[in-house]
Write a structure and sequence with these properties.
By secondary structure, the chain is an alpha/beta fold. Helix content is 44%, strand content 17%. Strands 3-2-1-4-5-6 form a 6-stranded mixed β-sheet, sandwiched between helices. Helix 2 packs antiparallel against helix 3. The longest helix is centred in the N-terminal third of the chain and has 19 residues.
Length: 190
């Protein structure tokens, strides 16, 4: 199976940032209500007083003020689906796996639309922003991959970021993605 990071890898953008911007534009009152908590969480994270997982949960507190999160996610993807990269669509396979730090509820619909059946992402309550477990980033991606696919083997892995070196080490072949350019990722196996 081939495994892909999502944001800035097969999608030209960052889903988390994009959805926050979308919400700020379409529901500014929700963002205003959430802003004090968000700022406090960002400062706490910057000072090393809270984890990235906790900070991300607090950043998504605006979800509590949205009437229909699913409708907003659907509208977001209606405007951004065209940002799925053509190189991915040309090589997509039936057993592809998407593994992402973005919240699962943000990616489930777009993955279904693309025919991607296997999604591993951050487990976040779409009504509160609370993350169940850890943010699906770095070495946590390996844990979550083996949780979903015990003994699974990765033929090829694609990512735009060095934080995914843990997943890259699992693959027979890995690629770094910069926009639409793919370069073989030479990484030492452990």
């Amino acid at each position: 199976m081939n495994v892909y990071d999502f944001d800035d890898t097969i999608y030209d953008g960052d889903t988390t940032v994009g959805f926050i911007k979308y919400t700020a534009l379409h529901h500014p009152w929700a963002m205003v209500r959430a802003l004090p908590v968000q700022v406090a969480a960002i400062i706490s994270y910057a000072l090393g007083k809270c984890s990235k997982t906790r900070m991300k949960s607090r950043a998504f507190i605006f979800l509590r003020y949205l009437k229909d999160v699913d409708a907003d996610v659907e509208k977001y993807w209606a405007k951004h689906k065209h940002q799925i990269k053509g190189w991915y669509l040309r090589q997509q396979k039936e057993d592809d796996v998407i593994i992402s730090a973005s919240a699962a509820f943000l990616l489930q619909g777009i993955c279904a639309d693309l025919g991607i059946r296997h999604l591993i992402a951050t487990r976040m309550d779409k009504h509160t922003g609370v993350i169940e477990g850890e943010n699906c980033k770095g070495s946590e991606k390996v844990n979550r991959f083996y949780e979903a696919f015990p003994g699974g083997e990765v033929e090829e892995f694609y990512s735009d970021h060095d934080s995914d070196r843990f997943m890259a080490r699992l693959a027979k072949k890995s690629y770094l993605v910069k926009k639409n350019e793919l370069a073989e990722w030479k990484i030492e196996k452990e």
